[in-house]
Write a structure and sequence with these properties.
The chain is α/β, with parallel strands linked by helices. The chain has a single domain, classed as Rossmann fold, CATH 3.40.50. Helix 2 crosses helix 3. The longest helix has 17 residues. It starts with a helix and ends in a 6-residue tail after the last helix.
């Protein structure tokens, strides 16, 4: 189902990431993780996502080093999260993905 409001929200969030601005969606994801952590107790928490969902997972993992996860084609959200890189998070990228090309701004692929 086509939802213009949702699409505009996603595009706005992507634009914020590209501009190096922390989107409000990141705060929402952090609040959700806090709720999950409270319910999970000592159980491990795993995150995953693709594209914008991957960016949210990266941000959550950057600020919660005990979180483990895998992302796919995620924008470099960890770089703007203010957190440290999480060694327990792997991001798979396609070096020909237009979003990656824009984000990398000419750097070489890892």
């Amino acid at each position: 189902m086509f939802d213009p409001e949702s699409i505009l929200g996603q595009l706005n969030t992507d634009a914020s990431i590209l501009a190096g601005v922390r989107p409000t969606a990141f705060a929402d994801a952090q609040q959700f993780v806090a709720t999950v952590q409270a319910a999970a107790g000592d159980e491990p928490i795993y995150v995953t996502g693709h594209s914008l969902g991957g960016a949210l997972a990266q941000d959550v993992a950057a600020q919660n080093p005990d979180i483990v996860g895998v992302t796919f084609g995620a924008l470099a959200a960890g770089a703007i999260s203010g957190g440290t890189n999480n060694q327990n998070l792997t991001n798979y990228i396609d070096v020909n993905d237009p979003a990656y090309v824009v984000i990398s701004r000419g750097t070489t692929a890892p």
